[in-house]
Amino acid sequence: HVQLVESGGGSVQAGGSLRLSCKATGLSFTNTPMAWYRQGPGKEREGVASIIERDGRTAYADSVKGLFTISRDNAKNTVYLQMNSLKSEDTALYFCAAPWGTGYWGQGTQVTVS
């Protein structure tokens, strides 16, 4: 049974930072590319960042490049999203996902920037 459990969301003032974590269980984490998505109020879900399992290559949405950093700790089966210089438009429910193949998603963690 695969589970992705996010944590680290909360409320922050504009310009602040948050670090999201996602603990994965039940899958071969070291062989699984991971990603973060978000869905803001009244918006469609969008990809934020992804990280490849083998060489750690990353990709980002243009809106977060240079501001957000995705990383992973394969020993802890955990993927992170460091978010800096947050803006009100970053307010969203953030999801951890292993979206390729079968596709697994977490329940999400709320980030509110005021």
Briefly characterize the structure:
Helix content is 0%, strand content 50%. It is built from no helices and eleven strands.
Order of helices and strands: EEEEEEEEEEE
Cα gyration radius (Å): 13 Å
Q: Work out the helicity level.
A: under 10%
Integer average pLDDT: 96
What oligomeric assembly is this protein in?
single chain
Give the strand tally: 11
Poorly predicted regions: none
Which strand-content bin applies to the residues?
Answer: over 45%
Q: What is the 3D form? A: globular
List the keywords.
114 residues; mainly beta; seven-stranded mixed sheet; 50% strand; globular
Walk me through the structure.
The protein has 114 residues and is mainly beta. It is built from no helices and 11 strands. The chain has strands at residues 3-7, 10-12, 18-25, 34-39, 46-51, 58-60, 68-73, 78-83, 92-98, 104-105, 109-113. The strands form 2 sheets. Strands 2, 4, 5, 6, 9, 10 and 11 form a 7-stranded mixed sheet that branches. A hairpin with a 6-residue loop joins strand 5 (46-51) and strand 6 (58-60). The mean pLDDT is 96.
